[in-house]
Specification:
Elements lengths: L3 H26 L8 E15 L10 E14 L8 E12 L7 E10 L6 E8 L4 E2 L11 E11 L7 E8 L10
């Protein structure tokens, strides 16, 4: 009645349709798997200094203000790993507003967490990994800022999403003038 290729085509198309339905269900339900990560972020010190940019793409020799943060981070993110988690991307940002720009977000630290053993973070008196500099080269118009820890689970299958975990308000001080 049916030859072998017609039957193989029917079985293959049914298997692919079932697999695609399973993929859609997995990608839609993964963000709702419960997890309870623990975290504690504390900010010790914020220093502002004036210096020249060490950016290889910025050939100008303009002086700019840089902020250096010292923070502690205790986090246990191992509960965020499940059967669909490939890795976690943890990063800290400083968010602030200025009159020229409504939203400013600068990433100051990041870490790729590949397994549950690496998911226990304990950083003591850690400094920002990346430079914190405002676009107009000064922090003069910055009123306040927030230090925010973000976790971005990267699934094997599905949608990536961002989870802001904790936010600490702080102020960026004016740089001290060197004594002559």
């Amino acid at each position: 009645m049916y030859n072998f290729l017609q039957r193989l085509s029917g079985v293959t198309s049914f298997a692919m349709s079932t697999l695609m339905a399973l993929v859609v269900v997995i990608s839609l339900t993964t963000p709702f798997i419960p997890s309870s990560p623990t975290f504690d972020v504390s900010l010790h010190n914020v220093q502002t200094t004036t210096g020249r940019a060490m950016d290889p793409f910025d050939r100008t020799s303009r002086k700019a203000e840089y902020a250096r943060l010292t923070f502690d981070l205790d986090a246990d993110l191992s509960t965020m790993f499940n059967w669909n988690t490939k890795l976690l991307f943890a990063y800290m940002t400083v968010d602030y507003t200025t009159p020229g720009f409504e939203t400013n977000r600068v990433v100051i630290w990041d870490r790729i967490i590949r397994n549950q053993r690496q998911a226990k973070l304990k950083l003591r008196k850690h400094h920002n990994k990346y430079a914190l500099r405002n676009h107009p080269l000064t922090f003069e118009d910055v009123e306040g800022a927030n230090l925010t820890l973000h976790i971005n689970p990267v699934p094997y299958l599905g949608i990536m999403y961002d989870k802001p975990m904790v936010s600490l308000p702080f102020t960026i001080p004016r740089p001290t003038k060197p004594k002559a």
